[in-house]
Specification:
AH/BAR_dom_sf; 3 helices; 2 strands; mainly alpha; about 80% helix; two-stranded antiparallel sheet
Length: about 170
């Protein structure tokens, strides 16, 4: 008796053709082969051990190379951080010196400003009056120019419209 899909199948041939093909397909798996010799599992796959050793060696080499690259990157970043730190200190020192120089000049500037005030005020008044005169003359010129442009533009626009209408009709 054999085991089938639906239960026990008698040897007499009551199994379907699909079940017979299925049982024949797995026949070599179920029955041991005596012509192969005794199963020597240690030597069954001798090249697997050498392949694994080779893979291990390659992975170790990659790990060493990666560690070397990581070490170089660490050293580069450390040097760059040192340089940026020195640069920041130099900029800070420069900013402090400029601030002190500016503070010193500011005190001198206020002292000199009080002495120059009357003279600067008269120059400023003269400039303001001349600027007002220029602004008035420019304003008149702009108004006159815009009126002229508007007056000349309307006949030109009318002629252009007539020209395009005539051209479209022809």
């Amino acid at each position: 008796m054999r085991e089938g899909r639906g239960g026990r199948i008698p040897r007499g041939g009551c199994a379907t053709s699909v079940e017979r093909r299925r049982s024949a397909m797995f026949h070599c798996i179920v029955q041991p082969r005596h012509d192969w010799g005794p199963p020597d599992f240690a030597n069954a796959f001798p090249d697997i051990k050498s392949q694994l050793v080779e893979h291990t060696r390659v992975l170790e080499a990659r790990a060493e190379a990666t560690a070397g690259v990581a070490g170089e990157l660490h050293e580069y970043c450390r040097r760059r951080a040192d340089l940026e730190h020195e640069y920041a200190r130099a900029l800070d020192k420069l900013a402090r010196a400029a601030h002190q120089r500016h503070e010193g000049q500011k005190h001198n500037k206020h002292e000199n400003k009080n002495q120059k005030w009357p003279r600067d005020e008269s120059i400023k008044n003269k400039l303001n009056s001349s600027n007002e005169q220029l602004i008035a003359s420019y304003k008149d010129n702009v108004v006159r120019g815009s009126r002229t442009a508007r007056n000349t533009a309307s006949p030109h626009a009318l002629l252009h419209a007539l020209y395009t209408v005539l051209q479209n009709k022809l």
